[in-house]
């Protein structure tokens, strides 16, 4: 669901950016790190800042949001206790990392801002452990995965905040159907132009993220034959899709103003794009991953996004330009669909060669190109793990299907997925 | 003879007609209750039962009540099994404050109610038995009200657990105390000691044994809701029958069966089966019959005592909930709701029926007429007020999903 990082994200960011600097002061030959260190271009304010004024952030810093399932451990259905969980965690150290989501069956956790994988992963594990411990006291479960296999959407209850109630009013049943669970990855950029460049350049790799994270094969008590059925729910929103084909931040502001003035949108939150610039945080937000079944995979996916961004920002020829953007989006919807439907077994259309390429091969090739950047960012092991996952095809969707084959009951699949999340 | 194909007057209503009429009357009562937006549907069933029963217009006579008894027993079996499978023993062991709350509120209720009766000159043993009866909360009322309003959450979950604990404590207390009355009546000492042992151990063994059978058949059958529901219903009915046949506690047997279904090794666990519409049918009959069983004797002399009984019972349950709730991180609202959810007194509607026998008339042989009459008056009062309190509790805790 399209929720945003809270103010904690930015307040934590300052400290972590300083941390990033202090770790890397002597590493001047390091390209990716140099990107992190590159001075920001700061606009000089002339009048009241535009609501979409881009707040620069340290390039290549990253943050993760995970939407999690709250499980009734008796029935293994979704439970409706997000407000009680948040209340009970209010004084906990990780309280600033927790937020409500559209329905009472969900909770969102946010990481702080990290320059490195090796601080992100331990923090995600710490948040997970704290949540699982409190959930155990409440006698509920916490579970990963992109959706719940057999919950009935009409039984969901909207979390009673003004914003969520307004969303429910606006979108009707879609709001409750939006009880699906995604991972969002934020990558810091220096300015709005870089944000737009990265938004478009990431699009080529969206199928990788979809397939590796895919963990929503079941819906309404049935195998959907998709590896990620979650994204089909997102597609129902009128403003789903991808960002407009503009490259300068000023152009984007012009586009937004026009959309706002004509009443198409009210705020940036009305765009349910797969990849979205996030001017107030100075990030690009990847929103296409299912929440994986483990936090470790979530951290690996963030590491992949970070390394990919380092490469794309460093070598602009690899990314997308205004002349090539049309070609980029030609196969976008089909490739995205392929990744949802077949996961890692998908074949991706390559417009430049008019051929199809197996997803796993495409990912392995990409990972190989990232090695230099991975070495600098210490994300090599993450990429290796993801490469093994791509080669084996053993993503979350496959794991869930294997569990169902083994135990023949959807509720036991949920029970096993809940146990997996806790480990 | 002409017209000898016609029925002979006076017409004798068949059981089918009776069953149909009871359901119809129950539905109408339930609908009227839900229109009030305050009363749970089961209060409607109970009121209709009462109006139609021997205490009202006597449309449902004593003999009809007996004929319908089988439906009531099956309904109670379903409810007790369902209660058992709601209890997560691993959670209860790890969440010690909840266990402490259950044990202390049961003990305190027993102690205060016993003292209350003693103060009013009821002999010690009989006062204690009446106190033991007061410990139990109506599983039927709490669970059906929660189900009707689709209540789910921390208060609902804790309420179920506390209901199970105080019903078990009540049965243990009652079966331990009842023989003391026998002693007064010069019954053999061995009988007095062995009876509770037989009852408790026998019920637990029967429940556990039936679970083993249930688990084996369950694995052999397909894991569809329909087949598993029929299997579970069959075992529940058989368990009720066996427990009655062997003079064991239906409550303990069914609770054991339900507890094992939930808590034994995961690979032997039973699928969670939705009871669905068929079970609803039994529940309508249960509450209409409960209402029909209520008798408005001359309560004028004990009315205020019954009120004291209800208040003492509420306070005894609420105190530990408020005291220990802090350690369980319960909010004040949750503690208030939890205390209110335990107000439905188990009486003719729940497991106590099996232990007390007929409370009416001159009272159970185990109870003096004063204690018996006060209990009967309290049960009558709480059959009407209890469901309303429970419904309010789940709504107040913000756990009710929808209104009936």
Offer a concise description of the structure.
The complex is a heterodimer of chains A (423) and B (404). By secondary structure, chain A is of the alpha+beta class.
Q: Can you characterise this structure?
A:
The complex is a heterodimer of chains A (423) and B (404). With 423 residues, chain A is α+β, with helices and mostly antiparallel strands. Helices cover 47% and strands 14% of the residues of chain A. Chain A contains 18 helices and 13 strands. Chain A has helices at residues 7-24, 31-37, 82-88, 117-138, 162-171, 173-177, 192-203, 206-213, 230-235, 249-261, 295-314, 325-329, 332-342, 359-369, 371-377, 380-392, 396-407, 410-422; strands spanning 62-72, 98-100, 106-110, 140-143, 182-188, 218-219, 222-223, 240-241, 272-273, 275-278, 283-290, 347-350, 355-358. In chain A, the strands form 4 sheets. In chain A, strands 1, 2, 3, 4, 5, 10 and 11 form a 7-stranded antiparallel beta sheet that branches. Chain A has a two-stranded antiparallel sheet with strand order 6-7. The longest helix of chain A is centred in the N-terminal third of the chain and has 22 residues, at 117-138. The radius of gyration of chain A is 20 Å and the shape is globular. The two termini of chain A are 25 Å apart. The model of chain A is unreliable at 1-29 and 37-44 (pLDDT under 50). Chain B has 404 residues and is an all-alpha fold. Chain B has helices spanning 15-35, 41-52, 62-67, 69-85, 89-94, 96-119, 124-135, 139-148, 154-184, 189-220, 225-245, 250-263, 276-293, 303-325, 332-341, 352-356, 369-396. The radius of gyration of chain B is 21 Å and the shape is globular. The termini of chain B are far apart. Classes of the chains: A alpha+beta (423), B mainly alpha (404). Chains A and B meet through helix 3, helix 4 and helix 18 of A and loops of B.
């Amino acid at each position: 669901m399209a929720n945003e990082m809270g103010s904690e994200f930015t307040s934590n960011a300052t400290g972590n950016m300083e941390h990033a600097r202090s770790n890397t002061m002597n590493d001047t030959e390091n390209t990716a790190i140099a990107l992190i260190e590159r001075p920001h271009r700061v606009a000089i304010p002339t009048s009241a800042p535009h609501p979409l004024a881009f707040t620069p952030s340290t390039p290549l810093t990253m943050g993760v949001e995970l939407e999690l399932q709250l499980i009734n451990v008796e029935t293994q259905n979704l439970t409706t206790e997000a407000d009680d969980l948040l209340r009970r965690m209010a004084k906990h150290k990780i309280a600033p990392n927790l937020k409500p989501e559209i329905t009472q069956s969900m909770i969102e956790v946010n990481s702080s801002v990290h320059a490195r994988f090796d601080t992100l992963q331990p923090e995600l594990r710490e948040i997970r452990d704290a949540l699982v411990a409190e959930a155990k006291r409440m006698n509920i479960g916490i579970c990963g995965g992109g959706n719940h296999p057999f919950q009935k959407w009409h039984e969901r209850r909207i979390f009673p905040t003004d914003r969520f109630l307004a969303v429910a009013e606006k979108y009707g049943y879609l709001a409750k159907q939006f009880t699906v669970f995604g991972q969002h990855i934020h990558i810091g950029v220096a300015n709005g132009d870089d944000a737009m460049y990265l938004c478009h350049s990431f699009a080529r790799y969206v199928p990788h993220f979809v397939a590796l994270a895919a963990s929503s094969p079941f819906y309404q008590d049935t195998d959907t034959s998709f590896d990620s059925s979650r994204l089909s729910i997102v597609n129902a929103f009128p403003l789903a899709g991808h960002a407009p084909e503009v490259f300068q931040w000023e152009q984007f502001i012009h586009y937004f103003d026009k959309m706002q003035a004509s009443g198409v949108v009210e705020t940036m939150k009305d765009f349910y794009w797969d990849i979205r610039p996030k001017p107030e945080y100075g990030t690009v937000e990847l929103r296409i991953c299912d929440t994986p079944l483990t936090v470790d995979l979530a951290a690996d996916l963030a590491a992949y996004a970070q390394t990919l961004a380092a490469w794309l920002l460093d070598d602009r020829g690899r990314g997308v330009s205004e002349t090539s953007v049309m070609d980029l989006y030609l196969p976008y919807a089909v490739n995205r669909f392929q990744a949802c439907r077949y996961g890692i077994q998908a074949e991706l259309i390559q417009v430049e060669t008019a051929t199809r390429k197996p997803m796993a091969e495409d990912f392995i090739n990409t990972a190989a190109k990232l090695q230099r950047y991975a070495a600098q960012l210490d994300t090599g092991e993450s990429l290796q793990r993801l490469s093994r996952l791509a080669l084996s095809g053993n993503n979350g969707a496959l794991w869930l299907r294997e569990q169902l084959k083994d135990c023949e009951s959807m509720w036991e699949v949920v029970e096993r997925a809940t146990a997996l999340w806790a480990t | 003879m002409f017209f000898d194909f016609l029925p002979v007057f006076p017409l004798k209503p068949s059981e089918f007609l009776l069953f149909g009429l009871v359901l119809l009357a129950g539905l109408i009562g339930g609908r009227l209750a839900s229109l009030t937006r305050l009363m749970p549907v089961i209060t409607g069933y109970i009121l209709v039962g009462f109006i139609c029963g021997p205490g009202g217009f006597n449309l449902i006579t004593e003999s009809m009540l007996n004929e319908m008894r089988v439906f009531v027993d099956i309904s109670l079996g379903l409810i007790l099994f369902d209660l058992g499978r709601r209890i997560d023993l691993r959670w209860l062991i790890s969440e010690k404050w909840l266990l402490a709350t259950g044990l202390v509120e049961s003990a305190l209720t027993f102690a205060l109610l016993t003292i209350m009766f003693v103060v009013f000159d009821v002999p010690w043993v009989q006062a204690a038995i009446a106190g033991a009866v007061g410990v139990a909360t109506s599983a039927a009322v709490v669970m059906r009200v929660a189900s009707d309003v689709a209540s789910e959450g921390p208060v609902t979950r804790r309420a179920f657990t506390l209901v199970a604990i105080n019903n078990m404590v009540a049965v243990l207390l009652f079966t331990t105390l009842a023989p003391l009355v026998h002693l007064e009546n010069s019954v053999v000492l061995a009988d007095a000691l062995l009876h509770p042992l037989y009852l408790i151990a026998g019920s637990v063994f029967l429940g556990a044994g039936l679970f083993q059978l249930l688990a084996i058949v369950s694995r052999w059958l397909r894991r569809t809701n329909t087949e598993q529901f029929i299997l579970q219903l069959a075992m529940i009915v058989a368990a009720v029958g066996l427990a009655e046949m062997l003079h064991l506690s239906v409550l303990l047997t069914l609770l054991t069966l339900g507890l094992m279904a939930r808590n034994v090794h995961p690979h032997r666990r039973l699928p969670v089966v939705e009871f669905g519409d068929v079970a609803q049918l039994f529940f309508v009959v249960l509450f209409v019959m409960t209402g029909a069983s209520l008798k408005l004797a001359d309560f004028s002399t004990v009315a205020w005592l019954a009120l004291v009984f209800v208040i003492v019972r509420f306070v005894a349950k609420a105190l530990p909930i408020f005291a220990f709730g802090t350690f369980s991180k319960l909010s004040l609202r949750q503690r208030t709701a939890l205390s209110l959810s335990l107000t439905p007194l188990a009486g003719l509607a729940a497991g106590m029926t099996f232990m007390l026998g007929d409370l009416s008339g001159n009272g159970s042989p185990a109870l003096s007429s004063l204690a018996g009459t006060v209990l009967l008056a309290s049960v009558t009062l709480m059959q009407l007020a209890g469901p309303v309190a429970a419904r309010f509790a789940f709504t107040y805790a913000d756990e009710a999903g929808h209104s009936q």
